[in-house]
Amino acid sequence: MISALFVLTVAAGGFFAREFGLALAAEMIIAIVLGISSPKPRAFCSGLCPRGRALGFALRPISLGKTLPRMFSSRAFRRFLCGTSMFLVVMSLFQVRPGVAVAEWAGMVFWTLCLITLSLGIVLGIVFKPRTWCAVCPLGTLQDTIREGRSRQALSSPSGTP
């Protein structure tokens, strides 16, 4: 319930103060740090992500419960979605408008991303299972990619430790 309130506060609050979107930027930073430092796969997703919990809570009663087609949960699709999202965010952040405070602009960029991905998560959660968004989430994919890179680095080091 707290997660749902947090997600709704950020989504609705952004209509009045774009800086609410900075909460999503903070979540991204935490997810990346945990992806680098935690031994658990998807540590942010399993322990801290408010969106996954909120979608599970809110959509459980109305979800059709269908299985997501395998193509959408493939590594290639997830990485394409992650890379595209990252590219669009970075490009948008560099489009600062004259007269608009940097925090307001960055907040708007992340708030817009929040609304788009929340909308997708709701549609996917209704058509498929409530937490279907978690299967394609760019942050989860980024954590997986970081973890794979750490594993490869550990295997290639002479002593077998990073």
Number of strands: 0
Order of helices and strands: HHHHHHHH
Rg is 17 Å
The level of helicity is: 55-70%
Number of helices: 8
Instruction: List low-pLDDT spans.
Output: none
- The total tally of domains equals 1
Mean pLDDT: 90
Class derived from helix and strand content: mainly alpha
**How would the global form be characterised?**
globular
Major sheet details: none
Quick structural gist:
The chain is mainly alpha-helical and 162 residues long. The chain is built from 8 helices and no strands.
Describe the fold and architecture.
With 162 residues, the chain is mostly helical. It has one domain (2-146). The chain is built from eight helices and no strands. The protein has helices at residues 2-13, 22-37, 43-47, 50-59, 75-93, 102-127, 132-136, 138-156. Helix 4 (50-59) packs parallel to helix 6 (102-127). The longest helix has 26 residues, at 102-127. The chain is globular and about 55 Å long. The model has no long low-confidence stretch (mean pLDDT 90).
Secondary structure topology:
Layout: H1 2-13, H2 22-37, H3 43-47, H4 50-59, H5 75-93, H6 102-127, H7 132-136, H8 138-156
Helix pairs in contact: 1-4, 2-6, 2-8, 4-6, 5-6, 5-8
Give short descriptive properties of this protein.
single chain, mainly alpha, 69% helix, 162 residues, globular
